[in-house]
Amino acid sequence: LTEQKAKEEFEEIIVGKFPFSANGKALGLGSTFGFVKTIADAKSHKIIGMHIIGPQATELIAQGGILLGTDSTIEDVKKVIFAHPTLSEAIMESVEDLEKLAIHKM
Q1: What residues make up the domain containing 68?
Q2: Is 55 part of a structural domain of the chain?
Q3: Quick check: is 84 catalytic?
């Protein structure tokens, strides 16, 4: 869902966002444009939307599809080990930002 659609369908949502300009792999590639935005239901913590704009977004969005397709929650994602340095860490950081815990966010 988009953020706007989520606001219409859910009582309360939370939004986490993480810029590729703060991602080690994107910095190494010299391609820091864009971000990952994750949207969750504030009550259940279920991931209900994700947007990825930036380097290799077409490769990364499959991970977002898995999170949505398996009804994953913030807590589920926090159990996943994300390799470093990878662009997919931006997904992890955007989920952590849902709880204001993204440690690399500038």
Answers
A1: 3-97
A2: yes
A3: yes
- The proportion of the chain whose per-residue pLDDT surpasses 90, expressed as a percent, equals 92
DSSP state of 73: B
Identified catalytic residue from 45, 51, 84, 104: 84
**What DSSP state is assigned to residue 37?**
E
| Contact present, 42 and 13 (Cβ < 8 Å) | yes
User: At 63, which amino acid appears?
Assistant: Q
Q: Provide φ and ψ at 25, rounded to 5°.
A: -65, -45
Overall pTM > 0.85: yes
Which among 33, 43, 42 has a CA at the least distance from the CA of 15? 42
Instruction: Look at residue 58 and tell me if it is in a domain.
Output: yes
Q: What CATH number has the domain bearing residue 66? A: 3.30.390.30
pLDDT in tens, 57-71: 999 999 999 999 999
